Amino acid sequence: MKILSAEFLRSCVGPDDYPKDRTPEIAFVGRSNVGKSSLINSLLNRKKLVKVSRTPGKTRAVNFFRVATADPRLKSFYLVDLPGYGYAKASKSVIAEWGPMIEHYLTARPELRAVFLLLDARGTEDHDVSTYAWLCDHVQRPVLVLTKSDKLSRSERGASLAAVREAFRLSEADRCVPYSSVTHEGRDELWQAIRGAIARSEE
C-alpha cells in the first residue's frame, strides 16, 4: 500500500470534538499495552506518528489520524485509536470516563466502517473475550489481530491461534490476523481488510 500522507488530526473527549466531514473511519480497540501504537505506526509505515509508551493507560482520548493512499478505492479515511481497556491503576475518575466515551463512539458513530480488536498473541484475558462479545452484540463483528506474534516460535504461534479460535468461538469465516510491528507480518492483510470494509460501505 502506497501511503501518500498520514497525520495526527486531534484528540477528542466527546462527540462535539469529532471530525464533521463524514470521512470513513476505522477503529482500533485493545487492552492497555497490547501494542496498538506500534501496530498503527507499522501499518502506516511511520516510526513516530503515534507515541509509543511502556506505561499502560497512556491513551486517554479518542485519537484521529487522517490517512490518504494512492489506492483509488481508499483515497482518504480516518484511523481512530481508542483508549485501552483493562488498566486498573488509572484513577477511578479516568476509568469511569473511558467506558462511556468508548461505548458512545463505537455505537453512535455513523462514519465507523470497521473495528479491529487487538489481542496479545502470547495470551488473552477474560476482558478480551467479553469485549469481543460486546462488539459483536452492539457494534459489529471485529477483525481480530494477534499482536507481538514475532515473540512466539512457529509452534507457539499455531497453539496461540488455536487457543484464540476456541476461546472466542470463531468460525472459519472469522478473520484472525497474526501481526508483528517488528517484521510487519500481517500488514498487507490488514490493508486488505480496511479496503474491503470501506468499499462495502460505498456500494
Provide a descriptive summary of the structure in words.
The chain is an alpha/beta fold and 203 residues long. It has one domain: P-loop containing nucleotide triphosphate hydrolases (Rossmann fold), CATH 3.40.50. Helices cover 33% and strands 23% of the residues. It contains 5 helices and 7 strands. The chain has helices at 36-43, 92-108, 126-138, 154-167, 187-201; strands at residues 3-12, 25-30, 62-69, 76-81, 112-120, 143-147, 176-178. The radius of gyration is 16 Å and the shape is globular. The mean pLDDT is 87.
Topology overview:
Blueprint: E1 3-12, E2 25-30, H1 36-43, E3 62-69, E4 76-81, H2 92-108, E5 112-120, H3 126-138, E6 143-147, H4 154-167, E7 176-178, H5 187-201
Keywords, please?
single chain, 203 residues, seven-stranded mixed beta sheet, 23% strand, globular
Strand content: 15-25%
Q: Which stretches are poorly predicted, pLDDT < 50 over at least 5 residues?
A: none
From the coordinates shown, what is the CATH architecture? 3-Layer(aba) Sandwich
Task: State the distance separating the first and last CA atoms.
Answer: 22 Å
Helix content: 25-40%
Side-by-side strand order of the widest sheet: 1-3-4-2-5-6-7
Along the chain, the helix and strand elements come as EEHEEHEHEHEH
Describe this structure in a few short sentences.
The chain has helices at residues 36-43, 92-108, 126-138, 154-167, 187-201; strands at 3-12, 25-30, 62-69, 76-81, 112-120, 143-147, 176-178.
